[in-house]
Amino acid sequence: GLHASANNQRAVNRVAEIKGRAAEKPFIVIAASIDDVEALGAAVPDVLHDIWPAPMTAILRRGDMTIAARVPDVDWLRTLLEISGPLASTSANRSGEPTITSPSELARDLQSSLDGVLDLGRREAKPSAIVDFTGATPKITREGDFAFTQNLRKTLRKSL
User: Fold this and answer.
1) The whole model's pTM is what?
2) Mean pLDDT over residues 89-109, rounded?
């Protein structure tokens, strides 16, 4: 993915420019913990303590706005996030181009625009589930991994 400090708007704008993404289309924020998501001003429902870390992005209230956040279920990434702090995150491809799975697939001009590349080999990540927690009841807006989504539905039902 392409990442920038979530607390540095200039860096976030730079990633949007590198990616060719419209400025009004926000990135998700990945964080090491629920505490880090709450420190960004997000209202985190109690049920997320039973779910995160997980391959699930939550749409949360943040004052009169919303934020899409995830505490990833990848140990090395959470360790990195403990050091860096929350990161604005997006896929490592230009907007509208196919998803890439390794740094060697990065477009050359995109590579030259980056401050650094962390190469952990080929990654075959599946899209995360997306759940909107801003309404009266949580709503799954994108299915993720089938088995995870089935367990997620059960956990959400129990919380109601």
Assistant:
1) 0.89
2) 75
